[in-house]
Structures are given as structure tokens and as C-alpha cells.
Design a protein that fits this description.
Largest sheet: 4 strands, mixed
Helix content: over 70%
Bound molecules: zinc ion
CATH class of the largest domain: Mainly Alpha
CATH topology of the largest domain: Helix Hairpins
Oligomer: single chain
Strand order of the largest sheet: 2-1-4-3
Number of domains: 2
Radius of gyration: 38 Å
Length: about 240
């Protein structure tokens, strides 16, 4: 690599480091965190809401099952709906009393389950109302915070625009494959991606790499990949 080419890349990288730090400031900002926190809470709220609706449906199904028990009750009712004077003997009396007992049990059980189910449905209703209010509040807070963040984003983009402009013009003078590799390293947050080979060390990760790269880095401008961090190391 020519000395001029190295200078171009170094300039490009300097600008990009400034851009990178602007991006990082943005991502670490209070505003960015606030928006993501609210979004997260909102999504959790929506999940809880879906779970409550499912619980409500289950309770309604259960309610319908209780109502079917009235049919059972009707059958027992027919058995006890006879004139007490028509009972002829003790066996018939026993049967009659049995039916009476069953009837009572059935009524008690229906009553209990109806109460339980009604109570549960009421609880769900209250919880749904509370949740909907909370979701609504989160939504307006999110919209508010998002507008603040959008403004901040505009500011960052404005600050970054002149950097980006100069970088674009420099890109024309940099090898395409080199840029591809550079961008891949940037994506992995290995910044800066283009580093010097100094005293047998990679200036990026600081590891001793002379054994692996010595033969590839003979003349000034020679470059290769650091076997430790994959950055591009060049001989100054
Ligand atoms: Zn390295």
C-alpha cells in the first residue's frame, strides 16, 4: 500500500471515529434509554393484556360448563318431584331421600362455582381496566419521549453530515475490498479497524503477533489481518 493510500485511509478512519463516537453518545443517551425502556414496558403490558383476555375466555368456557349442570339438576328434580304420600315403603323412601341429598349437593356445588367464577371474572375485569389505563399512559409518555429522541437524532445527523460528506469523497480513493473489510470490523465494534504494527504488536488489541505476521509485513505499507482480533494491521 502506498503512503498516500495509507494517509487517505487514516483520514477516513479519523472522520469515522468521530462519527462513531457521535453514534455511541446517541445510543448511550438518557433519551435513547428512556424510549427503549418505555417501549419494553409497553410490549410487556400488551403481553399481560393478551394473557388476561385468554383467562377471561377460559372463565367464560367454565361458566358455560356450570350452566350445563342445570340439566343434571333437572333430572334429579324429576325424581323428587313426586307426591310424598305415594311412597310405599322404606326402600322408596331411601331412594327419595338420596335424590333429595343429591339435589342439595348439586345446588350447593353450582352455587359455589358460580360465585367463584363470577368473582374471578370481576377480578379480571378490574385488572384489564387497570392495565388498559397503564398502557394508555405508557403510550402517551412514549410518544412524548420519542419526539425528544427524534430531535436529538436530527442534531446528531446534522453534526455527522460534514463528516459523512468528506468520508464519501474519500471512499472513491479506497479499495472496495478494503472498505468491505473495514465496515465488517466496524459492525463488530472493532474500532479503529486499521491499526499499526508496532514492535511486534497489533496496536488494536495489543497482542504480540510477530511470529504469525513477520513474513507478511516487511516493507512500509504492507498490511495483513491480525490473527488475534482480525483488525487490519499495517507496517508504518
Ligand atoms: Zn489485533
Amino acid at each position: 500500500m502506498q503512503a498516500k493510500q495509507i494517509e487517505t485511509i487514516k483520514r477516513y478512519q479519523d472522520l469515522d471515529m468521530q462519527l462513531y463516537s457521535l453514534e455511541n453518545e446517541f445510543i448511550k443517551s438518557q433519551e435513547f434509554r428512556a424510549v427503549h425502556y418505555l417501549k419494553d414496558k409497553y410490549l410487556k403490558g400488551e403481553k399481560s393484556y393478551a394473557r388476561l383476555l385468554k383467562e377471561k375466555d377460559d372463565q367464560i368456557d367454565h361458566f358455560e360448563k356450570i350452566i350445563k349442570k342445570f340439566d343434571e339438576l333437572k333430572v334429579i328434580e324429576e325424581n323428587i318431584d313426586q307426591d310424598i304420600n305415594e311412597i310405599k315403603d322404606l326402600v322408596e323412601l331411601d331412594l327419595y331421600e338420596d335424590s333429595l341429598l343429591k339435589y342439595e349437593e348439586c345446588v350447593t356445588s353450582i352455587d359455589k362455582e358460580m360465585n367463584r367464577s363470577t368473582r374471578k371474572l370481576n377480578e379480571i375485569k378490574i385488572e384489564v381496566e387497570r392495565l388498559l389505563k397503564a398502557i394508555e399512559a405508557l403510550k402517551s409518555k412514549y410518544i412524548e419521549q420519542k419526539a425528544i429522541l427524534d430531535n436529538l437524532k436530527k442534531e446528531v445527523l446534522m453534526k455527522g453530515a460534514p463528516l459523512k460528506k468528506e468520508m464519501n469523497s474519500l471512499e472513491e480513493h479506497i479499495d472496495k475490498n478494503f472498505l468491505k473489510k473495514y465496515r465488517a470490523l466496524r459492525k463488530e465494534k472493532k474500532m479503529p479497524p486499521f491499526v499499526q504494527y508496532l514492535n511486534g504488536n497489533c496496536a488494536g488489541c495489543g497482542m504480540q503477533i510477530n511470529l504469525e505476521v513477520e513474513k507478511k509485513l516487511i516493507n512500509s505499507g504492507d498490511y495483513t489481518e491480525c490473527p488475534e482480533c482480525r483488525r487490519i494491521v499495517y507496517k508504518p
